[in-house]
Amino acid sequence: MADSIALRCQNVCKWFGSAAVLLDVNVDVRAGEFLCIVGPSGCGKTTLLRMMDGLLAPDYGTVTLDDVPVTSPKPSISMVFQDFGLFPWKTVYNNVAFPLTLRHTPRAEVDSRVRSAIQLVGLAGSESKYPKQLSGGMRQRVGLARALAAKPEVMLMDEPFASVDAQVREMLQEELLRIWSDVKQTVVFITHSIDEAITLADRIVVMGQRPGRVVSTVDVEIERPRTVSSVRRHPSYAPLRDSIWSMLTSAAL
Q1: pLDDT per residue over 80-94, tens digit each?
Q2: Nearest to 158 by CA among 100, 224, 79, 232
Q3: Nearest to 145 by CA among 201, 197, 86
Q4: Which helix (H) or strand (E) holds 239?
């Protein structure tokens, strides 16, 4: 694992009106790592992710990518949303291609990158389908393919599997583990699920209730490659889950 810092949130604070959402949040995301953020609803996880993407500005503190302030969305950072964010009138191919066409990427390069991303997420053969023809899991794969096609330095994922059922969620977790092992991008992944965080992450940032603060950052010392079942069987799994649960419940008091 590289020790260099790709994305850094330093002393970040955010208010909405008179309500503090985040106070003095410090998070370092190492280049090439998979970082998960867990915490209770309303603790500011999504707000923090939007500041990492440049969609929101901190009221105090800084967010930097490779030591350069993030002040607006940029091609080197891609976001995968919980609600898929697909255009219903566009095919799978054109949904995945959309960010590239906005950047006026040459057509041959668009085609190569889009087809490669669709293949990577297991949707080859579905290029001409529309979102309404796809299952929830398939739609989420399209959202993932769109982010991958952009070849970002950092991928931000805001509870991307929360809207699918438990079985599909575990399948998508395993697909993401496989894809990440191939591309080794820097990933920041928000989830409410301790199990999901342990399955996916190299490190887990635990946040407390609003106003959100970092309670602890925990290393997940479970070897890769991983599967959902191998993680559950690992001797470190239960103690780690209990520890994170204890942190979350203590922070709620």
Answers
A1: 888 778 999 999 999
A2: 79
A3: 86
A4: helix 237-252
C-alpha neighbours within 13 Å on the C-beta side of residue 41? 1
> Which amino acid, residue 77?
I
- In the sheet with 5-16, reading across from the earlier edge strand, the strands are 19-30, 5-16, 60-65, 68-69
> Judging by DSSP bridges, how do beta strands 5-16 and 60-65 pair with one another?
antiparallel
Residue 206 per-residue DSSP state:
E
Sheet bearing 214-219, strands edge to edge: 77-80, 154-158, 186-191, 34-38, 203-207, 214-219
d(CA 11, CA 18): 19
Name which CATH class applies to 1-76+193-253. Answer: alpha beta
Q: Structure pTM? A: 0.92
- Say if residues 153 and 65 touch (Cβ distance below 8 Å): yes
Q: Where are the domains of the chain?
A: 1-76+193-253
Give the separation between CA 147 and CA 157, rounded to whole angstroms: 10
**Residues ≥6 apart with Cβ < 8 Å to 201:** 34, 35, 36, 189, 220
- Residue whose structure tokens are 């590239």: 100
pLDDT tens digits along 93-139: 999 999 899 889 999 999 999 999 999 999 999 999 999 999 988 99
Q: How far apart are CA 219 and CA 240, in angstroms?
A: 9
